[in-house]
Amino acid sequence: MKIDIFRNNFLENIYADQKLAKYTWFGVGGNAEILYIPEEEKSLEKFLKVKPSDYKLFTMGAGSNLLVRDNGIDGVTLITSKLNKISIDKNGLITANCGAFDAEVARFARDHSRSGLEFLIGIPGTIGGGIKMNSGAFGSEFKDVLIDVKAVNHNGEYKTFTNEDLDMKYRKIGLKDEWIFLSARFKTSTDTDKNIRDKMKKIILSRKSAQPVGVKTGGSTFKNPIGQKAWKLIDQAGCRGLKNGDAMISEKHCNFIVNLKDAKARQIEQLGKKVKQKVYEDTGIKLKWEIERVGKK
Ligand SMILES: Cc1cc2nc3c(=O)[nH]c(=O)nc-3n(C[C@H](O)[C@H](O)[C@H](O)COP(=O)(O)OP(=O)(O)OC[C@H]3O[C@@H](n4cnc5c(N)ncnc54)[C@H](O)[C@@H]3O)c2cc1C
User: Fold this and answer.
1) Ligand 1 and 29: CB distance under 6 A
2) Is residue 165 assigned to a domain?
3) Residue 183 in 3-state DSSP?
4) Which of 85, 126, 223, 282 could serve as 61's disulfide partner, Cβ 3.0–4.6 Å?
């Protein structure tokens, strides 16, 4: 079995044929051929040395921007959620491991009276996923706060990338997928506990009023075309509430697809394609997926 090479090298936290649905926000997705959830960076380093070069590797954070297809992912799926330490030095510089949840980093900064990371409170991903997507909300994005990030490639080689190296744009970066982000440093400023709390409260309230909360979703399905709002185009094309099985365009926010109960990844993807087609027919605009679709077709 493919997994034996890791077991023979005494690597732990490696599993064969694991359902990925429980690791994605949509609650869908087939099996990872090999699932690896390291607890320490050192183990990951050893893992990468042992991994044969022809084994594919896909890195996943909180799975909040992913649609994992029903046929699952070949090779190794690495989940970073246990590499999640956050620290602050005497100069107030915050370092977060890439499996740390954005909201935890926001709260950590708040607890140390550091401002600038408040926008992370509402993004349900990890730092690694946030850097890869240059995620953002309420006028801030990772590009505004990231100093640099330490990364390792699939051959176990380390490199630190500065903010500029990453070429961060709207929901994308200019770096190849072979890099796994490990830990990132952030610039922040001092502020009062009250101001930081107030900013975070505003963000939470505003999200609650505009977005579906407590549902299985992947967040914004499509990127906003320049000068346009994807949700408006989708609404105008008559797609609010459109359904395909248990996959539905949210009534509350048209750029969110929700899994009402037992939707398949296939039904979610088909619904997204239908919406793209309808918006194109209505406006001539081709929407681009923000959600990343991964796995075997
Ligand atoms: C309810 C909801 C609300 C959302 N709101 C927002 C929002 O306001 N703003 C916004 O920008 N997004 C939003 N999103 C989308 C999503 O939360 C972000 O894109 C988030 O940053 C993804 O992080 P993740 O850890 O879940 O990444 P995943 O979904 O697990 O992965 C996304 C990408 O990042 C890569 N990746 C993950 N970790 C690493 C790593 N350590 N090294 C290298 N690559 C890595 C993956 O390979 C993949 O390409 C929302 C999603 C949901 C479900």
Assistant:
1) no
2) yes
3) strand
4) 126
